[in-house]
Design brief:
alpha/beta; two-stranded antiparallel sheet; TIM Barrel; NADP_OxRdtase_dom; globular
Length: 295
């Protein structure tokens, strides 16, 4: 494994992390504790130290599975990033919750679910500018940092060209930007990444495999089950993406190289990117993701 400094946080994070949206049950598979233990143990074995989760991956379900695991392992071995701003109701249904008082309640629920006294990176989760620009929210979060419940603040921008929230990071005390970035979506290169570099912000590239389309496993016309979040994607857009993936596989991926590993390494080539946080369904996928560092 290789490690990079996470911007001004000075944390050293593995360049490949473990994304855990799938633990919440919206990617067509239900995970039990044994499944999660095996995935995270494989990550630890391979030198991965970064877990990214959120309050709304299930109703703190992903956090609870991770917390059970952490309660039986060395907490300090892991850098845990979670998020705030949404309340999960049922599969694919959430409401925004960004009021300062409500966020404090979410924070305590996340700490309880994760079975920890502190969160390494607490991220504003894809909210609109109007609620991001609430000084009371950031003042309350800074007090939680002073109390030791949060080590660092971050912002997971919903629009991957959201320069407003990125540029305001230093002002509000956010030290990490999480953004959609992959070979099919290079928008952050234009404005977001230069802003991150100017401010010395850490960058997590989420959806680095473009919701699995860049894994090379799917062909144009692929159909996803109704329990899979990709079932909700526009069919025509999905078809175009998968046609582009076929072209990339033929013209850009070196012969004999696994496309998913290539796609992760492609993200990590950009100097602004600290780490990629791909999801994984089993230990074999964790191992395959980690192997991207060899490229």
């Amino acid at each position: 494994m290789k490690y990079r400094r996470l911007g001004k946080t000075e944390l050293e994070v593995s360049v490949v992390g473990i994304g855990t949206w799938q633990f919440g049950g919206e990617w067509g598979i239900q995970f039990d504790q044994k499944d999660v233990d095996s995935i995270l143990d494989k990550g630890k074995e391979l030198g991965i130290n970064l877990i990214d989760t959120a309050e709304c991956y299930g109703d703190h379900l992903s956090e609870s599975l991770i917390g059970d695991y952490l309660s039986r392992r060395k907490r300090e071995d892991w850098i845990v990033a979670t998020k705030f701003g949404h309340h999960f109701h049922e599969r694919f249904t959430r409401t925004d919750v960004f009021g300062a008082k409500e966020v404090l309640e979410q924070l305590d629920k996340s700490l309880k679910a994760l079975r920890t006294d502190y969160i390494d990176i607490y991220q504003f989760h894809s909210g609109p500018d109007a609620v991001f620009d609430n000084d009371e929210l950031w003042t309350v979060l800074d007090k939680q940092k002073q109390a030791g419940k949060i080590r660092h603040l971050g912002t997971s921008i919903g629009n991957n060209d959201n320069l407003h929230q990125t540029d305001a990071s230093t002002k509000v005390g956010s030290e990490v930007i999480q953004v959609v970035y992959n070979r099919l979506d290079r928008v952050p290169e234009q404005r977001v990444f230069p802003s991150c570099e100017r401010q010395d912000l850490g960058v997590f590239a989420r959806v680095p495999l473009a919701s699995g389309y860049l894994s090379g496993k799917y062909k144009p016309g692929a159909v996803f089950d109704s329990t899979d979040v990709r079932h909700r994607h526009d069919p025509e857009a999905t078809r175009r993406k998968l046609e582009e993936v076929e072209r990339i596989a033929q013209t850009e991926v070196p012969e004999g190289v696994d496309m998913a590993q290539w796609a992760l390494a492609w993200c990590l080539r950009h100097p602004a990117v600290t780490a990629v946080i791909p999801g994984c369904k089993n230990p074999a996928q964790v191992e395959a993701n980690a192997a991207a560092v060899q490229l």
